[in-house]
Write a structure and sequence with these properties.
Length: about 190
Amino acid sequence: MSDDFMLDTDDLQRRMDGAMSSLKTEFASLRTGRASGSMLEPVMVDAYGSMTPINQVGTVNVPEPRMVTINVWDKGLVGKVEKAIRESGLGINPQLNGTIIMLPIPELNEERRRELTKVAAQYAESARVSSRNVRRDGMDQIKKAKADGMSEDDQKFWEAEVQSITDAAIKAIDAALEVKQAEIMQV
């Protein structure tokens, strides 16, 4: 019975990749002083009776390094889009020009940069915790198989396999954090 045990390492890898993907999305929402259309992804607009992502009510462009523009398709939604941006907590003051909303991205001061690096570190830590939880699930499957009669050699092999997947995921998370922190601290 123990000979047919196969740990689904692809599933563990996919779940750890999901943690990394989630981390990248969270990193994209951090403002680095440079304009990016992805910083508006979490902003939802009350359009036509439902909460809608901002990119579904207008075209988001980055014409300059410190400017994001939104060309709202429906004139009636311009005020709602502006309100959603003001209330989003991004710290950006929208400027109206007809159906175009301009978002000048202010320069970040040193204190704010340090705060953002701490936030980035928190995001990375939650991704590490997610990866470790996936590792724990894999180890639990191995322990169950050991109780069902798996050999000690097989147990050590699968534990090493799970650990190597986890180590690779944590290394990728740490590398992404270093890149993001360097980007935030860059003036």
